[in-house]
Specification:
Layout: E1 8-19, E2 28-39, E3 43-47, H1 54-61, E4 69-74, E5 77-78, H2 83-89, E6 90-93, H3 105-115, H4 120-133, H5 149-161, E7 167-171, H6 179-196, E8 199-204, H7 207-213, E9 216-221, E10 224-229, H8 231-236, E11 241-247, H9 253-261, E12 266-272, E13 275-280, H10 283-296, E14 301-307, H11 311-319, E15 330-331, H12 336-341, H13 347-352
Parallel strand pairs: 3-8, 3-9, 6-7, 7-8
Antiparallel strand pairs: 1-2, 1-4, 4-5, 9-10, 11-13, 11-14, 12-13, 12-15
Helix pairs in contact: 3-4, 3-5, 5-6
Amino acid sequence: MARPSTSLAIEARDLVKTYPAGRGKRRAQALDSVSFEVEAGTIFGLLGPNGAGKSTSVKILSTLSRPDSGGASIAGIDVLRHPERVRKAIGFVAQKAVSDPMDTGRENLVLAGRLQGMPRAAATARAAELLERFSLGDSADRLVKTYSGGMARKLDVTIGLMHSPQVLFLDEPTTGLDPEARADMWAELESMAEAEQMTVLLTTHYLEEADHLASKLAIVDHGRVVVTGTPEELKDGLRGDAVFVELSPETDLDAALRAVSRVSGLSEILVDARTIRGRAAVGAVALPQILGALDDAALGVASATVARPSLDDVYLRYTGHSFRSGRPSLPAASPLAGAQSSGTGNTEKENAA
């Protein structure tokens, strides 16, 4: 299949999507003017926690859902006007398994190829090629129900690749895999993207996965794209070191915040659960001062660390809350009670997305 002539393989323009809520309640908004562009031949990551709107975006781009407003194109093809053409140009690997556990791996692949209109001989040859590339050759003629989780997930990816799509959508491809199987899948995906010369859109809620695989990413939060860029660009945009201090359970949080806020050179001070985090030009200089301030106030510390900027720090900068916690982090100058109550208003929207 010819590669797309346009330099943009994917374009999303102001996508809005809402879902019905309960009786008497407002519709829950899954996407709020989502826009991004993906260059042809790249791995693009949509990064965000569960419920951020990643899967809803992919469903619209892959013609499985229609937006309330906005538009999108795949390889220059309008998603809303020509969905049948888009489906021929894309591969889609959903979060849930698509293979038949009562068929062999080879049978699943040949069937997928035939459903895409491939002649049997071509489908058989392509299946053999993909099985070897993904290290499934020795298991090709075993029933899928005997596969491990990592093997079954690899098979799902190969099913999406059978017809050599121009764009491949991978929706949370490593969810549920153990660390070893996840690392193995990362290696296979990198090799696949290079060998197939295709565009890959990857949705993930694993920070390290986006950092490792994506050449560019968009961070999504509560149905909005809050920032885009390469992982290195986004991390380099945060100057200095991140400092983390986990307080002892008995430590008074208000008093700790007051003590830490007096440390010179410490900025962006936030509290996430019982962890105070801030940014300093040189973390190794700031950390002893922070610990000294807490000790002077007779406040207990459980642990303290200094780290270079991470994607979690990027997420915190642009959303106001930690990626891993999913809750708003609290500015040191804000009343704790009022800030804590602000994190409960998006539950319906998150669930709907």
